[in-house]
Amino acid sequence: MKQKLNAWFSARNGREKMMVMLMLFAFLWVAFFYGIWQPLQGAIDEGKAAIDRANSTQTWMQQQVMENDLRVQRARVANPQQAINDSLKQSKIPHTPLAVQGQKASVTLEPVSFAAFYQWYVLLNRTAGVQLDSVQMTPLGKDDSALKIDVTLFWGKAA
Fold first, then answer.
1. Which of 31, 53, 88, 105 has a CA positioned 20 to 30 A from the CA of residue 2?
2. Which one-letter DSSP state was computed for residue 93?
3. Which of 151, 155, 159, 149 minimizes the C-alpha distance to 104?
4. CA pseudo-torsion sign 51, 53, 59, 61
């Protein structure tokens, strides 16, 4: 096959040889452009678009955090357990001892009104950075203002 191609090319005159070489060069250039360059450029453009989408998503998320006050709360005190106990004593809310596991604490408040619980929690959150993980409220008897509240609180590492 190679000998036939060499014989065919040798049989051409100088001008025809130049045209065949130019057409071969053009074919190789087109193959390189459409086979290698265009797919690489497309991948680069897709990567840039993905980065732009990620940046715009991050910007949107940061705006939502600031608008809705969803910042990550960190404990503002060295000992959140002590802060919880102190705030309960200060608010004079009857409670069971804290059950602490890692960065979570569970406590039962009984009997307590919702308003007193809410004021206590807001004060605790603002002063100590302790957050509410879960809460379960059970009415005590016929009196709607008296509740048994099981609360699980958590805190991040101190900043």
1. 31
2. -
3. 155
4. negative
- CA-CA-CA-CA torsion for 86, 87, 89, 90, nearest 10 degrees? 110
104-113 tens-digit pLDDT: 999 999 888 8
Is residue 149 within 8 Å of 110, Cβ to Cβ?
A: yes
Per the CB < 8 A criterion, the answer to whether 111 and 145 are in contact is no
Contacts of 59 (CB under 8 A, 6+ apart): none
Beta strand segments in the chain, E: 99-101, 104-112, 131-140, 143-154
pLDDT tens-digit series, residues 19-66: 999 999 999 999 999 999 999 999 999 999 989 998 898 888 888 877
Counting beta carbons within 10 angstroms of the beta carbon of residue 85, is it exposed (0 to 12), middle (13 to 18) or buried (19 or more)?
middle
- CA of 97: how far to CAs of 58, 107, 110, 139, in Å? 42, 6, 12, 21
Nearest residue to 84 (alpha-carbon basis) of 108, 54, 57: 108
8 Å CB contact between 112 and 150: no
Cβ 42 vs Cβ 123: under 8 Å: no
| Threshold 0.85, pTM exceeds | no
